[in-house]
Amino acid sequence: MGRSRRTIPEELLLLALDPATGTTAQPQSLDLGLAGAQLVELALAGRIAPDGDRIAVILARPTGDPTLDSALELLRRRGSPVRAVHWIGGPRLGLRQTYLTHLERCGMVHAVENQMCGVLPTTRYQATDTAVSRQIRARLDSAIRTGTPPDARTAALAALAHAVGLGKHLYPGNEGRSSRSRLRDLIRHDPMGGLVAHAVMDVQNGAAGQAAAARRPQPSGAPRKAGHAPVTAAMAVVGQPGPPEQMRRRGVTRAAPRPSLSH
After folding, report:
1. From CA 142, how far away is CA 235, in angstroms rounded?
2. Helices and strands (H, E) in the chain, number of each type
């Protein structure tokens, strides 16, 4: 894959980089968006294709981009098409930092070392080639203004920008409301971008729903519903049944309590 242009993960990260603070907007959802952007880039390179709500590898040949090729190899090892929502919701530790480091090596950003509260070391990133960031933004602005993206790459970028919540970062305030709405509408212009964008939003909505359920207090003395039993040490490990279930699987039953002998 040639390096004459930035990949969609790189473009999404540059869009999210706040020039005033040196941090990225929407950091939690951005990590999901970067995983989704990799899928779109691989699809544009002819390596994967959508199969319903799943992703199928159609050509396992490396692209020449180490980060994309790592994702492609993981998909190939699955052996069968994987649901986009499962792939995007999987662990992606360090993906954002990987791309930031790559952009720094390419001279697109430079790291600024600092300290939080004078103690904790922090790293902020400032764009050094602002012309590229302006070109990326101009493509989005043009697509929003005309209602039609110029190419599948821009359509997918717009879909991902909306999915990770960059609309309010790019088009803030009441004056940007119509632009944010048109950004959302651009999802329909690219099937792969739309599939991935919806998967990103589904993962976020699922995580938000689980967090809300965990915070919801239960009435005092109310019976616990199935699936809300206290977690034992054995049950806390994924795939390990709790003690009663273990005994049932081993053919062991609980002994009945002995009758009292006292009168």
Report:
1. 53
2. 12, 5
CB 158 within 8 A of CB 37: no
Sole residue written with tokens 């599939």? 195
Closest CA to 126 of 106, 102, 108: 108
CB-count burial class (<10 Å; 0-12, 13-18, 19+) for 24: buried
Q: What is the DSSP string of 156-179?
A: HHHHHHHHTTTHHHHS-TGGGHHH
pLDDT per residue as tens digits for the range 82-92: 999 999 998 87
Q: Name which of 72, 77, 45, 43 is nearest 60 in CA terms.
A: 72
* Contact criterion met (CB below 8 Å) for 55 and 82: yes
List pLDDT tens digits, range 228-258.
443 333 333 333 344 444 444 444 444 444 4
Residue 21: per-residue pLDDT: 76
Q: Please give the single-letter amino acid code of residue 107.
A: G
Beta partners for residue 57, in sequence order: 48
